[in-house]
Amino acid sequence: MGKGASGESPTLRQVGEFAVIDRLVRGRSQPAAVLLGPGDDAAVVSTGDGRTVVSTDMLVQDRHFRLDWSTPHDVGRKAIAQNAADIEAMGARVSAFVVGFGAPPDTPVAQIDALADGMWDEAGRIGAGIAGGDLVSCPQWVVSVTVLGELDGRPPVLRSGAKPGSVLAIAGELGRSAAGYSLLDKEINGFIDLRRRHVVPQPPYGAGALAAAAGAQAMIDVSDGLVADLRHVAEASGVGIDLSTAGLAVDHDALAAAASATGADAWSWVLGGGEDHALAACFAGAVPDGWRVIGRVLDGPPRVLVDGAQWQGYAGWESFGS
Amino acid sequence: MGKGASGESPTLRQVGEFAVIDRLVRGRSQPAAVLLGPGDDAAVVSTGDGRTVVSTDMLVQDRHFRLDWSTPHDVGRKAIAQNAADIEAMGARVSAFVVGFGAPPDTPVAQIDALADGMWDEAGRIGAGIAGGDLVSCPQWVVSVTVLGELDGRPPVLRSGAKPGSVLAIAGELGRSAAGYSLLDKEINGFIDLRRRHVVPQPPYGAGALAAAAGAQAMIDVSDGLVADLRHVAEASGVGIDLSTAGLAVDHDALAAAASATGADAWSWVLGGGEDHALAACFAGAVPDGWRVIGRVLDGPPRVLVDGAQWQGYAGWESFGS
After folding, report:
1. Is residue A319 predicted with pLDDT exceeding 80?
2. Which of A137, A196, B103, B107 is buried most deeply by CB count within 10 Å?
3. Which residues from A are below 8 Å from B220, CB to CB?
4. Closest Cα partner for B298 from B212, B230, B247?
5. Closest by alpha carbon to B96, among B158, B59, B48, B143?
6. Among the partner residues B45, B101, B134, nearest to A52 by beta-carbon distance
């Protein structure tokens, strides 16, 4: 959304809440799981096996995204992707999203259209729809997404099931978002793929359900950083986890040039970078297609090691840190 | 939450995201419908008949609540109550909530505790639990609630089913929140019940499912104002709706003294005041217990009349109005 286009678009205040909602809703095609879409007091979503998996995330402008780095379309894709990853991490399948959006009254409606288009584009990659929402006035952009998912008769894959002797495997890539952030922050050109990956993550859609069907013992999505997130698995399961730099070398090597350009340590990105929304899971035996082994599960006490030693670098994001 | 207590409480930044979430989650008792509560990537909620009703609302500080008028506990109750009303308006029953909360890092944790307590108190009134959430840094408070509900095998009651010749009935009270707002805004003491009703609405819990079971044709919750919300029913159903001031006199009369004290017109509050979250529904025959007739359904075109004439006063809230 260029500044020119924004300047020509009428604003939220000019168009009004209900007319904007009409624009956002009109012409969208809901998947079969959305039994009743937007337009009433609530939506109705099908839940085949009598259980709904539900998760919610809030994204705040200048905290979780910057409108000089991301287009509104990118912000919409990111908000959907990171919520979908939470459903994947339960071994479930996304059925629908609902979205709360706050923005200043002088926001060009074209930007809201683009945000909604981004949400629908990303939801479409997983066959899901946006079943409802709320649009309010707020001093900055706040995007709050809630996602519903289905387990298709399987038990949810929790953080608490990891067993000593199992392998730790990952689906998706690590450190890309953190590398992209560093490149954007230092205004280093090139590395377009990495910069894009910060702006729009690419969770390994479908890998969570595949892991569940293959008997994954425990699973989590890497949102705060690999070491930080695996600590939750270690604590919930009462196990140690030992990461192998040999298993993670492919991620490290993919980031080496960008690390050199920014003066960063690629291992900090791989082990501490969040927002890639890769999935990490523990398996007793062979890992399914699309998964690769990066470590092993040890007896307790709960801790996360790297090649058998404690990791001293940056370990991950904290919401109220600076 | 007095200023003294706030001053003594550690802040979100000092305590940190994960420790605050631990405080909020610890010791809460989930209802049976919450199969898996907070602590994993997502929650799991039971949906008995294979459908989930879902709705979401976002509340922004100084737009939807003021922390000099409302305690954090009040804000929590209001956020839960207004979301629950959307589920009631479908003829459904609330099963669980998920909550996104944004606040500045210097927010006293005691205020977050009070907000969560208010949410749990209000959820407890309807036998529901808070199944999960997200806690992020934001320049002002933003509370985003998503509610899940169950239809117990019934079809949802939509806005679109009203038939000419039916009666329009209401459960709950009208104009109280608007009266309370005016009293608070003009700093008029007394009328404590009305001022409280602005701060914490009292939806008629259970009346929605009762209406659905009694064959309600169409239903809506009065969130923006009676006339404004009934316009949605009129348009969706292709009918006219004629409100009777005789039927609404009990609401008007209850507000007469406050109207006199503030110089307002009590009819503007009754017909245009939102946020009471009363329910309005159309019935072919007798209305169930707790409901009272306030008008009738006419042939189209879609319009809302008062005693057969167009209403000229304030008709309701618009998100990007001033």
Report:
1. no
2. B103
3. 41
4. B230
5. B48
6. B45
**End-to-end Cα separation, chain A, in angstroms:** 29
Which residues of chain A lie closer than 8 angstroms to B53, CB-CB?
42-44
Indicate the residue type of A9. S
Provide the 8-state DSSP code for A10. P
What does the pLDDT average to over B32-53?
93
Residue A300's pLDDT band, with cuts at 50, 70 and 90, is confident
Q: B141 to chain A: which residues are within 8 Å by CB?
A: none
Q: Does B40 touch chain A (CB under 8 A)?
A: yes
Six-digit token pair at B316?
Answer: 């309701």
Question: Are the beta carbons of A115 and A26 closer than 8 angstroms?
Answer: no
**Rounded Cα gap, residues A270 and A173, in angstroms:** 9
- Reported confidence tier of residue A68, pLDDT bands at 50, 70, 90: very high
**Residue A308 CA neighbour count, 13 Å, CB half:** 0
Matching residue, tokens 């399987």? A154
* Closest C-alpha to A148, from A49, A281, A291: A49
What confidence tens digit (pLDDT) does each residue in B58-97 have? 999 999 999 999 999 999 999 999 999 999 999 999 999 9
Phi-psi region of A317 (alpha: psi -120 to 50; beta: other; left: phi over 0): beta
Say what percent of chain B tops pLDDT 70.
96
Place of tokens 């009349």: B305
Would you place residue A7 in the very low, low, confident or very high pLDDT band (cuts 50, 70, 90)? low
3-state class (DSSP) for residue A59: strand
Structure tokens at A217: 């013992």
Whether the pLDDT of residue A1 is over 60: the answer is: no
Q: Which site among A52, A63, A86 would you substitute to test the B interface, given the most B Cβ atoms closer than 10 Å to its Cβ?
A: A52
Cα–Cα distance for residue pair B84/B221, rounded to 1 Å: 10
Question: How many CB atoms sit inside 10 A of residue A139's CB?
Answer: 17
Q: How far is CA B201 from the centre of its chain?
A: 6
CA distances from A302 to A166, A206, A240, A285, B15 (A): 15, 29, 5, 22, 22
Backbone φ and ψ of B316, nearest 5°: 150, 170
Structure tokens at A252: 């490290």
Least confident range of A15-29, A234-248, A252-266, B151-165: A15-29
Q: What do you get for the CA distance between the two ends of chain B, in Å?
A: 29
DSSP assignments along B123-138, one per residue: HHHTT-EEEEEEEEE-
Identify the DSSP state of B310.
E
HSE-up of A83 (CA within 13 Å, CB side)?
35
Q: Rounded CA gap, A273 and A249, in Å?
A: 15
Give the count of beta carbons closer than 10 Å to the beta carbon of residue B257: 14
Kindly list the strands in the beta sheet with A292-298, ordered across the sheet, starting from the edge strand earlier in the chain: A218-221, A279-283, A167-171, A292-298, A240-243, A303-306, A309-310
